[in-house]
Amino acid sequence: MRNLLFVIILLMSSLQLTFAQDKCSHFWYAQPASDWKSALPIGNGRIGGMIFGDPSTEQIVINENTIWCGPPLPPNNPKGPELINKMRNLIFNGKYEEAVIVCEKEFADGVHENARSYQPFGFLNIDFKDKGAISNYKRWLDYTKAITYVSYTQNGVTYTREAFVSKPNEVMVVRITADKPGQVSFKSKYTRPFGATTKAENNRSQYVQGQAYAENGEFVGVKFEGIINYYNEGGKIKANGTDIEINNANSVTIMIAISTDYNIHDTKNVLTHNRKKICEKQLSQAQKLGYKKLKQTHIDEYSALYNRSSFDIAFNTPVNNNPIDKRIQLAASGQIDSELLFEYYNYCRYLFISSSRKGGLPMNLQGIWNPLMLAPWRSNFHINVNIQEAYWFAEQANLSECHEPMFTLTENLIKNGKETAQVMFGTKRGSVAGHRTDAWFYAPPTFLKAHWGMSITNAAWLCLHHMEHYRYTLDKEFLKTRALPVLRETALFFVDWLVPDPRSGKLVSGPTASPENRFKVNGKVASLTMSCTYDQEIIWNTFRDFLEACKILGISNEETVEVEASMKKLSMPTIANDGRLMEWTEELEETEPGHRHISHLWGMMPGNRITQDKTPHLVDAVRKSLDYRLNHNYHAQGWSLGWVTSMLARLKEGDKSLDMMQHNYFTKAYPNMFVDAHGRPQVGDMMGVPLAMIELILQSHTDYIDLLPSLPTAWKDGKVTGLCARGAFVFDMEWKAGKLISTNIKSLKGGKCLLRYEGKVKELSTEAGKSYQVTF
């Protein structure tokens, strides 16, 4: 009887809980966007748009992710090898500052730094003729459907706008309707500051031709063409110069198609297809579907990805119906909004699906959304943390297909990096790349300052994503044909690159900088050393991954012997006298104790050499290092908070990780939840927090799959579905009062599944395609 009463009470109390997922399907605003930081993004991985939602004049910023300014590209410095030897000698003799001078004045190319920018396709301004007073205004994004909406009442008429970008049909779609006939009237103008011409065709189309280049006429790049079609129901349509004018329609559907000459497989040879015909074909196929079917096809394709996983936490709180900008403002001031974090999590999944799709470029610093002809950091691919972090959660969140553009970037960069390795770095084999690249996949380092630019393990870090994809999917064909080739190139580069430290005889990398950090020696600021911890960890990881891939594929040869020998001689990080993990081989004085990068902790996250099971002393050193950073006026950026919260999840400090997400992260968020990076909005930098949230619930980077390893106290009741673990397993879990009550595991490839929960271990022998219910 007591058990029955307990069950009844439990059921009644559970009815009072509302799961965050049930609340989190959209967010809204009570006013139009005043600027870029408030506008709402739509996209299909290739085409992107930002919707402002002004009742008087709608502004849509249109992007296509291959529209980049072009060459000249940074050259490989043929004097590089002799300068590297010169810098090494200076560093080994304690002349750090002199090595920096050689690096900045002789080794690197600062001329081409930030030269080529990602640019918008253009701007569509829809000027509505009705200018009366507005009431009942609302705009919102439904990220379960990937559609933005605007609704308002004007002069007794309720107007509605919908906008999305269809992946199946490769068109942007904007639908404008009114609840009374004959009320939709506007003039639509396409503009671009320079580099494009427009003409009206057939009284219902705008045909755009253009080419990306810098404002001074240099760096001529990608050619593009586009067609903007207007389909009116009722009323009249006509061309007015290059504008399209519509009067007294019942509704209007606008469709936009774009094609470029960019060749992702061979950037030196442009595509020669008929760009206009491609656009015409895409528009014709979309129009034949009709708006209702076109919209449903879009929803079905998108939701098939979005609905693969869910993340639900139950809170005893009422639904927060405030506009999202107000909620962000309150969260930034310290008010906890439990559901807001899950809005953010789902929004990040939406942005990821909308900006990274197979066959295209990966998301850049701005995702695919950029309004400027000269973008912040040129919207390039920063590969010393930013783009890697943007893709950290791809596999865990069951969005493996969206990881694909990252692999394409890496493979193209590795090809170009072979010349850089030989000509500029003096190795006989392998590939290397600087700390950033762009759509042309250039590899030579470009920088004005050594502390951010002299970083040589970036390409190797990219290759980790190939190996992780294998670990999550167990796709041996991918491992053989795509992962192993890039791992081989980076591993062989390091075999040739490493030199013995005369003090220890161990192999070290250098000259190199711990990303963007500096130190003082004899009162002078410098940044270059031999053997920073960041380099040594990534090199160890690269050697390990290469040897693991070879073992799985049954490969044993002279190269594996060489790599094994180098790995055994590799200098590894040590612990300082104060118990912290050393960032450099010597205990050097940091110029910024609260520096935003935590690169020296790479071996614990995203790497996995440092774990509680195998290296508890190093875990303690990582914890002390992280605490030291956080306690010294930590210079946080959006991406760095993502890294720190993920690190805390691995340190099993769930409450601290959650506290940082809730109290610190939204101080960096703009009204549209894009993240502030040195005063500029970025998208790629948003993606670290979703990974941290997942790793609070599920971790698989050790020999075990850990269930609820860092569960925050506040997440007492919850459930997740569709989260992935290494070994090709998919997990559904539910917990109540902080205790796991249900675990369902689907094995995609079969094999051993080693589970751990609260110190208890269970081993399953699984078969491919079967599901297993487990209790502890």
Automatic annotation (TrEMBL):
Transmembrane segments: none annotated. Residues 28-263 form the Glycosyl hydrolase family 95 N-terminal domain. SUPFAM superfamilies: Six-hairpin glycosidases (SSF48208). It comes from the Bacteria. Residues 1-20 form the signal peptide. Keywords: Hydrolase, Signal. InterPro entries: 6-hairpin_glycosidase_sf, 6hp_glycosidase-like_sf, AFCA-like_C, Alpha-L-fucosidase, GH95_cat, GH95_N_dom, Glyco_hydro_b. Residues 699-765 form the Alpha fucosidase A-like C-terminal domain. Residues 290-696 form the Glycosyl hydrolase family 95 catalytic domain. One of its GO terms (biological process) is carbohydrate metabolic process. One of its GO terms (molecular function) is alpha-L-fucosidase activity. PANTHER family: ALPHA-L-FUCOSIDASE 2. This is Glycoside hydrolase family 95 protein.
